[in-house]
Amino acid sequence: MLFPLPNLRSVPAAVLLLALAGHAVAQSLPLTNANFEIPFGLPPGTEDAAAGYSVPGWVEYEPSGYPWEWDVYAPLSSEGGPESGTNVLKGLAYSPATAYVEQVLTNALQNGTRYTLSGWVADPDGHTPENGAQFLLFAGTNLLTTAIDTPRAAKTWNQASQTYDSGIDNPYTGLPLKVRIMHNPGNSYRVLIDNLSLMAVSVSNVALPAMAFTNVQDYGFMFWSNGPAAYHYGIKTSRYGMAFNWASLTPTTLFPIANPSPESAVLTESWAASFPANTPLVNLSCQVLTNGVTNIVEAASAHAGDVALIECGKYFQRRWQTVQAGGLPLASNQCGLEVAAWPDRLSFVLRLAPSNPVSSATLQMTLALTNLYHSLLTSGAGGALQASNGTGFVFLPSAGSSAISFNPTNATVRVTTAMTNWQTNQQGSVGLVIYPVATNVAWALTNALATEASPLPLAVTPVLPSGGGLAVNYDTDRGWYDVSLPASGTAGDNGILRAQVLHVRV
To answer: What per-residue confidence (pLDDT) applies to 444?
Structure first.
């Protein structure tokens, strides 16, 4: 099951219903005496007997009754020395596995936070392997996670670390955090601990990329010219307008908007106000070339009901219209023209699948602009056509297209896809991704190429049920991210599935 998530290029962060986290700086939560020092010096190889074997800042639990099961110790250089500072925490050999020291923090567990508990562990006696120690993180009396030391080379320091994501609706939110240190079960050797830390990154206080907030005034609408019986539907956004004649399978006008009207005004304006008579005309044509035969792609039906509305909201609209291609036998349930629109871009993608094998074919789509856009700009896989007034259009090939070409003299752009040994029900596609631009076309071309070639990297982690990462893939044709969701959520008729979306800084 796929969940579409918008490209943050064109949608403000506030519209994301999933928890969206940016790259935030980790905060170190205050642990008292995390380096296990004491206010007076100890000779190397000795413990703090004069202080009653206490560990300042920590509460000790020693069920055997011996106060030195956990104490502050000044290690010898032959034992590995301290990891930092002068002293360390030492766990006595043969002490019960239930003995521990712990500390309750002044910080409480917060929702939407990733905690990382870590510390350094050494074996002063040179046993290899040895069983080490473990660090436990609690909220109140509830165990959240455990960082377990793993076997390593003798008399060397090893860092044990473990993270815990509190999620967005944690039942222990508000309970005080607590850190506990104890032997691993079965460890019968001395163990040294040093330099403990607890770090936190809050999802609710993140440094979201500025691009997530630059488009908060964007909007988009899709509507019929005069009800579903009309031959035209329109798309009007804060960046462009387009009227589409579904019966002829072509847009009739497409134009950038330099000074958009307020969203509230566009919502109630007439068709004539949205698409004035003097707006530039355009034409889209699609063909399938097979063995010297040109098969014209046309609407498969004269019914407006076959121009299916798939999605329609403030920021995204998508339609699917079934098509036919001359005498080419097609698997009709897989063939259509998809129109997908965001506030700043739209795409036309033709998807076809033959009902019989075809040895070779070329899928072709040509968009002819008004005879104003004669200045060609190219860069990488895309290009732009610009008018003398500074407006223009940026064009990129859709994901399935093989090639893109421009004819600035005639103000046309063409994309093609070569299909060899085209098998039955094998879907091929050809299409254009278009950015209408009111000003600074060269910058828009550079920005569009960067956005589509290297979209904002995301990582999606299940929160409930928890565990693992979900596959995320950017869909160029539709301008969104596909997130592969688990087959089911929590158990029961009212199962829950929650996920956290993280912006990954690279």
So the answer is: 94
